[in-house]
Amino acid sequence: MVKSFLNRITGRSFHGGPDAHRRFNYKVLLDKDLLTFCIPCTSPMAFPVLFPYQTPGWFELYTDQRQQHRFVCINQQQYWYSGHFLRTRGEPLGQLMLSIWLKQVTEGKSIARHNIERLGHYLSGQGKDSSSYIFGSSAQLNTALQQYHTNRRSNTLTAAQRQDYAATRHKTILPQCYSVKSFGSQPWLHYTHASRAFTRQYHYYCYPLSEQFYLKIRFAYKANLPAYFHYWHANARAAQQSIMQSVKLRLHDV
């Protein structure tokens, strides 16, 4: 009983997530560039780790497409969180999904290798033609925060939490506002997005590889039970930080 109570008040009443899996090192050759990373998974990749995207016809052969987005999936993992002492009736608390993609810009557009600012302008320009992204006013934000209070069964949000949710809400899924984050010596274009009820959050890291292709890493947070999102959110964010610190992009011309 004492352990259960302590786990509840410290937010450790869950099991699963990335910590439940062994970490594996990967090396992926993106044409002449080497991408390495260390991620938790059940088993190493079983498919080839050579992605010669500059070879004519290769990308078209292996590409997937959703709406206007064309990409090749390099790696994708799901990490589920379950309630350990919580009464969830068998429902998972939520999941963290990691996706690593090689993406192609839309037809008629171009970016530039190593030019993060130009990539940001390209992605921001895409957002003008989309109706699926959030452009919330302050009043809508306050309403959403109040709803989130109720879902969490909590009286108040801390100032830091409020600032975090406000930032993710006002940054669209395409970065009209973006930042450059570095892990070691590797810079990334970084932006975030959150759903209206904060049941889903997305963190993106991008790097331009050529005039037509860029690398995109996405961390997607899905709260199946929003009232318990705060129980596993910190663990998922720590895993995200650890994974990004392991990502190394060795560029052949740098």
Short description:
With 254 residues, the protein is an alpha+beta fold. The protein has helices at 2-10, 58-62, 116-127, 138-152, 159-170, 229-246; strands at 14-16, 23-30, 33-40, 50-51, 64-66, 69-83, 92-104, 179-183, 186-194, 200-208, 213-223, 248-250.
Characterise the protein shown here.
This protein has helices at residues 2-10, 58-62, 116-127, 138-152, 159-170, 229-246; strands at 14-16, 23-30, 33-40, 50-51, 64-66, 69-83, 92-104, 179-183, 186-194, 200-208, 213-223, 248-250. By secondary structure, the chain is α+β, with helices and mostly antiparallel strands. It has one domain (2-250). Strands 1, 5, 6, 7, 8, 9, 10 and 11 form an 8-stranded antiparallel β-sheet that branches. It contains 6 helices and 12 strands. It is globular, with a radius of gyration of 19 Å. Strand 9 and strand 10 (200-208) form a beta hairpin.
The first-to-last residue Cα distance is 57 Å
Order of secondary-structure elements? HEEEEHEEEHHHEEEEHE
Oligomer, anyone? single chain
Can you give the mean pLDDT?
Answer: 80
**Biggest sheet, in brief?**
8 strands, antiparallel
Architecture blueprint of SSEs:
Elements: H1 2-10, E1 14-16, E2 23-30, E3 33-40, E4 50-51, H2 58-62, E5 64-66, E6 69-83, E7 92-104, H3 116-127, H4 138-152, H5 159-170, E8 179-183, E9 186-194, E10 200-208, E11 213-223, H6 229-246, E12 248-250
What descriptive keywords fit this protein?
eight-stranded antiparallel β-sheet, 254 residues, 6 helices, globular, alpha+beta, 12 strands
